[in-house]
Design a protein that fits this description.
Spore Coat Polysaccharide Biosynthesis Protein SpsA, Chain A; alpha/beta; binds magnesium ion; two-stranded antiparallel sheet; eight-stranded mixed beta sheet; binds uridine-5'-diphosphate; 10 helices
Length: 343
């Protein structure tokens, strides 16, 4: 089922000269869906998705990664496998969306992978457009949210601020603020992603880091059909810290900068005090200045230690070399005759 490669051709697309591998007409498509408590969505999503994928290629699979759901997500996936080419990768617990995506990417067998959420927020109708760009030679096609109407103004602003900070801070990796995990990856991109050994996986940064010929397609984000978002403020904050510590050492540089600035100010202040004492003699000890200075300095020091701690924590996670996820159980439409199989 390998893509015919090596037959290079050039073509002008949207004003760009693309050198690309000839694409097979019927690639094996893997659609990867991380699912955490998505029992309310999967039953209606999968038949629609299967119908759409059928129009693109006769060979496809839908890989559902059950990320430690506490509802019937896995059971529904197994039921769906009776009628559709569904494979279930059931993680041993909730590892988080980034790990679930990594598990899906590792287990998908397709020539191309389509990553999408299992809650109807990523419109199925956009997939043919992704596919046509892949056929034209793009290795990665990602969706760009045209509006974030389902989110509060605070979340929207914080998200924009975070991505523009990250893009500027990690000047090698531009991260598109409104692009998410809704994307199509060629097998070559998947192989590159699998070569990245890091445990803390900030997927949006990793997609950008590997590069490849990419194009963003605007799409209208739908509302979640059933269930609740698995991301609350603290989880998003954790993801943001992971993104920053994985892709930039700017906060560490900020600590050095702040340290240097405070030291310089202290020297200047010291000179001023000395001169004043020499000229006007010793006056009343200024304990207010002393207290203010001390608390400011301890604040800066604690902040610096905290930032340093974040990076050390990341190093700690990396050196432990624990796997990104643990698979509890597999089930494939190919095992329809058998019972649930264990790895
Ligand atoms: N998800 C997951 N593990 C988690 C949280 C979410 O696999 O710990 C999945 C979820 O089932 C959905 C996708 O990731 O398919 C996006 O999650 P969600 O809709 O909760 O996030 P939001 O759209 O609010 O950013
Ligand atoms: Mg969602």
């Amino acid at each position: 089922m390998a893509v015919q490669r090596g037959n290079k051709a050039t073509e002008k697309i949207a004003g760009e000269l693309l050198l690309y591998h000839a694409r097979t007409q019927a690639p094996f498509i893997s659609c990867v869906l991380p699912a955490y408590n998505e029992s309310g969505n999967l039953g209606s999503l999968i038949p629609l998705l299967a119908k759409q994928l059928e129009t693109l290629s006769p060979t496809y699979e839908i890989v559902i990664v059950d990320d430690g759901s506490r509802d019937a997500t896995a059971a529904i996936a197994v039921q769906l496998a009776a009628d559709h080419p569904v494979r279930l990768i059931q993680l041993a617990r909730n590892f988080g969306k980034e790990s679930a995506l990594t598990a899906g990417i590792d287990h998908a067998r397709g020539d191309i992978l389509i990553l999408m959420d299992a809650d109807f927020q990523h419109p199925i109708e956009t997939i043919p457009l992704f596919f046509s760009y892949w056929q034209q030679g793009y290795d990665m096609v990602y969706g760009i949210r045209t509006d974030r109407h389902d989110e509060s103004a605070i979340k929207r602003n914080l998200t924009n601020w975070f991505y523009s900070f990250l893009t500027r801070a990690s000047n090698t990796v531009p991260i598109e603020p409104n692009a998410g995990d809704f994307r199509l990856l060629d097998r070559s991109v998947v192989e590159a992603l699998q070569k990245l050994p890091e445990r803390t996986r900030f997927m949006k940064g990793l997609y950008s880091w590997v590069g490849f010929k990419s194009v963003g397609i605007p799409y209208h984000v739908e509302s979640r059909k059933a269930g609740q978002s698995g991301f609350n403020f603290w989880r998003l904050l954790e993801l943001a810290v992971t993104g920053i510590t994985s892709f930039t050492s700017l906060p560490l540089r900020f600590c050095s900068g702040a340290g240097a600035a405070v030291s310089l100010l202290s020297i200047l202040y010291g000179c001023y005090i000395t001169l004043r004492t020499l000229i006007y003699g010793v006056d009343l000890p200024g304990w207010a200045t002393l207290v203010a200075g001390m608390s400011f300095l301890s604040g800066i020091q604690l902040l610096a230690i905290g930032i340093l701690g974040e990076y050390i924590a990341k190093i700690f996670i990396e050196v432990k070399q624990r796997p990104t996820y643990v698979v509890g159980r597999y089930y494939s439409y190919e095992d329809r005759q058998q019972d649930l199989t264990r790895p």
